[in-house]
Design brief:
The protein is mainly alpha-helical. Helix content is 77%, strand content 0%. Helix 10 runs parallel beside helix 17. One of its GO terms (molecular function) is transmembrane transporter activity. This is MFS transporter.
Length: 406
């Protein structure tokens, strides 16, 4: 990306970019493919309500746990080897869980697959910072776009694929092919693992605990956690909110499609704009304004121009590609990016794990979505504060209390 494509260096950069983008495409399907066929999985494996509930919360929990472990693993064996190990775990877990007969075996193998996915996810901003230091915005935009395409493809395609191939087991098995392609593309990347970057010394290591002792690290984590809360809640409950307002199931599904589909071009545009501005406070406040319009539309008149509220909600969840860009912009080194990404995403996903559950529980208790939606409106206050500070120009290394956090 930084050289002519006809030169050896230019060809190397393009090969690296392809490897990163194919990797990015694989970092959501293993998490979202369960939802569309959960009823079939529950019936085939005789899952109880508790086990089925655990399945729906596993992605955020795995992001939190493995996100905290990833920097230390990466420091010990190198960033590129860590991604390779993550891909092996993802492929093994996804393939094996497709053919087990035990619900708990399916759960444990899902943890293996999701752990591999989470590990790779944490290191993506660091990979971009390391390989494309002069093109962070463009590279982030491209991998954010591929992540959005991956999650949309898995959400829309899992059921048709299962119907075409004879069930969810065959669909899960077929889905492994894309992850195998990512692993094949990653083999040449292992050559980059040697050298000073991979063998970070204790002196240059920035740990999870060191980021945890900074206010800016917590600002990023709260920002990430609350934006994920909105995203998971909207994607999980928006069709139900519309149906309870009187919309048909088919049309409610279309509204969710709008809320996800509008985000695809934003996933490409937002990171590029953010990097050019360096302090994208105005963009962030605009995103928050769109989120407010969408929430108030659902509160006061969901059936008048329902597609418009879905569009505004999609615009309001564009804070995700924004914070992905910030993860690469708010550090001076790939090591700093790894530590910041790990802390931000692990703590953030832990926060987000409670959002959809609380939203649904309150709706069930009150028989209406009014209180749940007002809580989402109230959460905009801390998110705006955290996002404002995250969007200012700063670098995590400048805020470190110690450079060797545990």
């Amino acid at each position: 990306m930084t050289s002519s494509g006809s030169s050896p260096q230019g060809r190397t950069h393009w090969l690296v970019l392809v490897a990163v983008l194919v990797l990015a495409f694989n970092l959501r399907p293993v998490a979202v493919s369960v939802g569309p066929v959960l009823t079939d999985i529950t019936a085939d494996l005789s899952l109880g309500a508790t086990t089925a509930g655990l399945l729906t919360s596993l992605p955020t929990v795995c992001f939190a746990v493995f996100g905290a472990l990833t920097p230390e693993i990466s420091r010990r064996i190198g960033m590129h080897f860590t991604v390779a190990a993550g891909l092996v775990a993802l492929i093994t877990g996804q393939l094996a869980r497709a053919w087990v007969e035990s619900g708990w075996a399916f759960l444990l193998l899902s943890i293996l697959a999701l752990g591999g996915m989470a590990t790779c996810n944490i290191l993506l901003p660091s990979l971009v910072r390391h390989h494309f230091p002069g093109r962070v915005g463009l590279a982030t935009a491209l991998y954010s776009l591929l992540m959005s395409v991956g999650v949309t493809a898995a959400s829309i395609g899992t059921v048709p694929l299962a119907n075409a191939l004879g069930g969810w087991r065959a669909a899960f098995t077929a889905g492994v092919a894309v992850a195998v392609a990512a692993a094949v593309c990653w083999i040449p990347m292992l050559a980059h693992n040697s050298g000073r970057h991979a063998r970070a010394s204790a002196t240059g290591h920035i740990g999870f605990g060191a980021v945890a002792r900074t206010r800016m690290g917590w600002a990023m984590a709260v920002f990430f956690g609350l934006q994920s809360t909105y995203a998971y809640t909207i994607f999980g409950w928006l069709p139900t909110v519309y149906q309870d307002a009187g919309m048909t199931q088919v049309n409610a599904g279309v509204m969710l499609g709008i809320a996800t589909g509008v985000g695809i071009p934003l996933a490409f545009w937002v990171p590029r704009y953010a990097v050019r501005k360096q302090a994208p406070v105005g963009l962030f406040l605009t995103i928050m304004g769109c989120l407010a319009v969408g929430l108030f539309g659902l509160l006061y008149d969901p059936m008048t121009l329902p597609w418009l509220w879905a569009v505004f909600l999609a615009l309001g969840t564009a804070s995700f590609p924004l914070i992905l860009a910030l993860l690469g912009m708010r550090s001076r080194s790939s090591g700093g990016t790894t530590a910041l990404s790990s802390f931000t995403q692990s703590v953030g996903y832990l926060i987000a794990a409670f959002g959809p559950v609380v939203f649904g529980a309150l709706g069930g208790l009150t028989g209406t979505w009014t209180l749940s939606l007002w809580i989402l409106v109230a959460l905009m206050v801390p998110m705006t504060v955290a996002g404002y500070f995250s969007c200012r120009v700063w670098f995590i290394e400048d805020h470190m209390v110690g450079r060797s956090g545990q």
